[in-house]
Amino acid sequence: MPDSPKSGLTTRRGFLAAGLAAGGAGAVSAAQAAGDPAILEVKPWAQELGEGVDARPYGSPSEHEAHVVRRNVPWLTADPVSSVNFTPLHELDGIITPNGLCFERHHAGIAELDPAEYRLMINGLVDRPLVFTMQDLLRFPRVNKVHFLECAANSGMEWRGAQLNGCQFTHGMIHNVMYTGVMLRDILAEAGVKTSGTWLLPEGADASAMTRSIPMEKALDDCMVAFKMNGEALRPEQGYPVRLVVPGWEGNMWVKWLRRIEVGDQPWHHREETSKYTDLLGDGKARRFTWEMDAKSVITNPSPQAPITHGPGPMVLTGVAWSGRGTIPRVDVSIDGGANWVEARMDGPSLDKSMHRFYHDFVWDGKPMLLQSRAHDSTGYVQPTKDALRAVRGENSIYHNNGIQTWYVNEQGVAENVEVS
Amino acid sequence: MSKFLKATAVIALIAGPAAADTLGLGRAATPAEIAAWDIDIRPDGAGLPQGRGDVETGEEIFAEQCAYCHGDFGEGVDRWPVLAGGQGTLTAERPVKTIGSYWPYLSTVWDYVHRAMPFGNAQSLSDDEVYAITAYLLYANDLVDDDFELSHENFAETRLPNETNFFPDDRAESPVFIAREPCMSDCKPEVKITARAMVLDVTPETEGADLADEVVEVAAAPAFDAELAGAGEKVFKKCKACHQVGEGAKNKVGPHLNGIVGAALGARDGFRYSKALTARAGEGAVWDEAALDAFLTKPKAWLKGTKMAFAGLKKETDRAALIEYLKSQSQ
C-alpha cells in the first residue's frame, strides 16, 4: 500500500491502485496460502478500547471514507462564491443522499441566517399580507416527502461531447432527500389568494435575493415550504432554516433561505428565467419556462471514478434514475453500447418525483464493455440518446441534457466517459 | 378553490385577522415591511420606483463598481459575465449571450442590478444609480446614444431586440417525447466510440486525504488568536467577492491575501495594482497591522486612487478580527 500507516487515510488513487493489483485471482490465492494477516493478527480495534459515547456528539463518517466528498470543477465558474459542486453519486447507494453530500449551488455564497430572525412574508394579490416566524411555520400541519432536486444544468457540460470523466461531474448536480415541511397551499390559504393571483414569486434572503416565477397551479399542487431534510434541520448550504420544494422541477426554483412569496397576475421574467435557465436552440430562438426535469438515468458503478477492481466474474452494476413527471417503473441496461438491452432490477422505494435505484447483476467475461442505461418513466417517456436530443436542440441549450450516458470499461475494469455511434 | 378563498376573505374583514377555516397563524405585514422587501420589477414597469440616470453618469458608476468583474465596456473579466456585444451570435458555434444579444426585457437588468449587484455589496446602489447603470448598459450594447437618459417615464417603451425570440416550453411536442417501446436486441449493426473524455483531460484531480493532512498541520502551530481569527473569517465574507486567501489562493479581482500581514505593498506577482498603490509601495511601505487597519477603515481615504471599491469597515472590532484572520493565513 502506498499510504503511510500513521495517516490512516487511504487516498483514492492508492485505493484504486491497490484494488487493481489485488484484483487478479493470483493475489487472492497467495494471501490464502500464507494465511490472511487480517485474520491472523490481533488488530488494535480488537484489543484496545475505542472512543466513548461523547467523543463524537455529532457523528461523522469513518476516516477511511475521507474521499467521499462533494467536488467542484474550478474552471467552470469565475468564483466559488457563485458556483456549484457535485454529489459523489459513485460512492452512494440506495436512494437517499446524505445531507453533507448534497451538491451545492449558490449565487452569492451560503447565507447564514439566525432562525430567531427568520421571517416569511406573503404579499401581493392576497387578502391579508402576512408575516410568519419559524414558530408559526411549526404550527401548520406537517408532511414528509422524498424528492430529487436536479439542477437544470446537470450534464450541461456534455452537450458538445464527452467532457468530464466521472458521474460525479457529469450527473452530480442532483440529490434526493426526505423533506419535512408544510404544504405551500396551506400557507397561501392563510393569506387568502385573490382570484386574480395566478403566479408566485418566491424570493431568497441571501445576497443574490434569488427569485423565480412559479405558476399558481404548481404551487397549489405539490410545493412545500420545508425546514427539515432527512430528519434534521436543513443544512446552511441547502437554505437553512427554510427552503421551497418544487417537486420534479428545475433546482433553481427551489429557492433557499426563503424569505418572501409574492402573489401576482403574470410572470416577472427575472434574471434566472431569462438570461439563465432558458434553452437556446440551434435556430437562435430560446425556450423559456422549461420547468419539468425529463426522465434520466446514469450508471454510478462502474464509472470512471469507480472502476471494476475485482476482475472478471460475478459483478454488480448499479445506478440511479428519476423523472420530474412521476416514477420510474423500468430501466434498461446495455453493456454493448446500445445494441442489446436487458431490463435492470429495480430495488428500493418507488416514490413520485424521487430517485430510483436499479441493479444489473451479471457475470463479466473480462472483455471491454460500453455501459448504458435508459430510463422509462410512468408517463411512458423513454430517455433519449444524446444524439437524438442534439438533433432537435442543437448543442447550445446548456440546460436539460437528459441523454443516455455511455461508460467505456476496458479489460482492466477502468472506465471512461465516451460517446458512441 | 378561488370561490372558497373569496368567501373566507369577506369573513376576515368582519371578524378580524383570523378568518374562518384558516388557522389564524402569522401576523399582518405592515406597509413599511412590505416596501422593504418587495423590490421586484416586471417588464411592464410594475414595481419601478421614480428616478432617472443618464449614460455618462452610468459609465462612471460602472467603471467604479462593476468593471472589476465585467470589464469597462461590459466585455467580462475572466469568467465573469459578458454584458455587452454578441449581437448576431445566437446561432453561432459559441453564442455570446448578453443584454443586447439575448436578454428579452430591460426590467430584468434593472431588477437584478438593484437586488444583487455589486457582487458582495448587494442593494447598496440608489435607484438613480441603477437607472444610470442600466442606461450605460444599453449604450454599451449600441442600443441608445451617449446622451440617453433612462427614467421611470421612458422605461416601459425601451425594449430589447431579442424579446420576440423566446417561446414557452413545448418539449412535449418534440419527437423525443413520443412514448414508444424501444428496440431491445440487435439495435445497431456496429458500435463505434465517437468521443472520449480522456482526450480532453479537463476533469479535476481529487486527493481528499492530502487536504485533510494539511489542515491538521496548520492547526498545530497557531501564531494568532484562533477565536478572534474565527470571527475575522466571518468578516472576510465581505472581501470574498474580490480576494482569495488560504490554500491555492490566486489573484482575482483583487490580489490574493496569503501572508499579507507584514508583506510589502504591491508585492503580488502578476497583479496590476493602481498607480496610487504602486507609488506607495515605492516608498517602501509595508502592510503592518496599523496600515491595514487604516486602509480597511476607509480605503479611498487612506489611499486616494486605490482600485479597491470596498467602502470600508466602520467597526474597529471587525477590522481587528479580520486582521487576525489574515494573520492566520500566513502561508
Written description of the protein model:
The complex is a heterodimer of chains A (421) and B (331). Chain A has helices at 12-21, 25-34, 37-40, 44-47, 134-137, 167-171, 184-191, 216-221, 386-393; strands at residues 71-72, 83-86, 105-106, 120-124, 130-132, 143-150, 174-183, 199-204, 214-215, 224-229, 232-233, 243-245, 258-264, 279-280, 286-288, 296-301, 313-322, 330-334, 342-343, 345-347, 356-364, 369-376, 406-409, 415-420. In chain A, strand 20 (345-347) and strand 21 form a beta hairpin. Chain A is an alpha+beta fold and 421 residues long. Chain B is mainly alpha-helical. The radius of gyration of chain B is 27 Å and the shape is globular. The model of chain B is unreliable at 1-18 and 207-222 (pLDDT under 50). Chain B starts with a helix and ends with a helix. Chains A and B meet through strand 1, strand 4, strand 5, helix 7 and strand 13 of A and helix 1, strand 1, helix 2, helix 5 and strand 4 of B. Strand 24 (415-420) of chain A pairs antiparallel with strand 5 of chain B, so a sheet runs across the interface.
Integer-rounded radius of gyration of chain A: 24 Å
> Helix- and strand-based class of chain B?
mainly alpha
Major sheet of chain B: 2 strands, antiparallel
Provide a count of the helices of chain A: 9
The strand count of chain B comes to 5
How many β-strand stretches of chain A? 24
What string gives the helices and strands of chain B in order? HEHEHHHHEEEHHHHHHH
User: Are there runs of chain B of 5+ residues with pLDDT below 50, and where?
Assistant: 1-18, 207-222
Task: Report strand order across the widest sheet of chain A.
Answer: 5-4-13-8-9
Largest sheet of chain A: 5 strands, mixed
Largest interface: A-B, 112 and 94 residues
How far apart the termini of chain A lie comes to 40 Å
Question: Regarding quaternary structure, how should these chains be classified?
Answer: heterodimer
